[in-house]
Structures are given as structure tokens and as C-alpha cells.
Write a structure and sequence with these properties.
Oligomer: single chain
Mean pLDDT: 85
Number of helices: 5
Structural class: mainly alpha
Low-confidence stretches: 13-21
Helix content: over 70%
Length: 182
Amino acid sequence: MKKTFYIALGIVMVLLLSGCFNKEGKADELVKYHNSDWATYSAKKEKSVSPKIKSFIVLAAEDDREGIEALINESLLPSINELVNYLEEIQLEHKEIQELNHLQIEIVKDGYKRFQEIGEVLNSGDGEELKQVLEKFGEYGEELDNMYEEFYDERGKLMKKYDVHWDDEYVGDEVHIKKMKK
């Protein structure tokens, strides 16, 4: 009887301890994902996509159809595709962190789809349809904000769940970096 009790107690202890170690592993992966993988993605986006989106806005304001078409097809779509590929290649072990990364992938793919649609309309040569697509693209900012809000909310929930917090780091006097820490 005592032997059965000790075996049952041992099994319960192993299960309880494995839950603690699993939580620790998820916290470590969340920190690594944000501080390494997501930070790299963000830097790539700032370097390769953000300036092109600014150029797109200028070209759209000038109604430069050829410039927009060239920018989208030759530069913007390939750059966005590289971001998608980078995010899809991130190897994550835990489902919750995978789902967080998937939210980011969906945001980037949605942007790709919208620019691709503009490129297709430009190829068709329909000026009225282009005007409508560009107007719809203007409304995209709010939708994008909502998608990012969902991503940030989910990340915040995971941070709270795994007792991860923000730590401010400064590079030089001006560059502020938010990193995660346990």
C-alpha cells in the first residue's frame, strides 16, 4: 500500500514539476522570439519596406501610375515576400508562440495582398478602378492598426501569463530599445 502511495505521489510531483519547466520554456521562447526573431523582422521591415511605402504614398499623391507599378512589382512585393519568408522560417516549439508569429505573418501577407491588388489594377489600365483601390488602401491604415492591436494584445497576454516584462535598453544617447526579460 505504501509503495503504491509513493509511486502515485512521485507521478503527481513529476507532472507538477514538468508543468513548471514547460512554463519556463515558453517564457524563454517568448523572450527569444521578441528579442531576436521579431526584432530582426522589425529591423528588416524598417530598412527594406517602410521607405518603399513612403515612396508609394508620394507616387500615389503625384498620380504616377508607371512609378507606382514599377515600385510595387520590382521592389515592394519582393521585399514584403522576403519578410513573409523570414517569419515563416522561424522555428518555434510552443503553440502559443507559433500562433503569435502566425498573427504577424497574416499581417504581412495582408499587406502583400493589398499591394498586389494595386499592381493588378495598374496592369489592367482601368483608371477608375485604380482610384477606388487607392481610396480603399487609404482605409487600410485603420485595419492595419486593428491587426497590430490584436498582435500586441496577444503578446501582452503571453507576457503576463509567463511573467515576462519589458526592459528598456539604450544604445548611445538616442536609440531606445524595448526588450523582454523574465
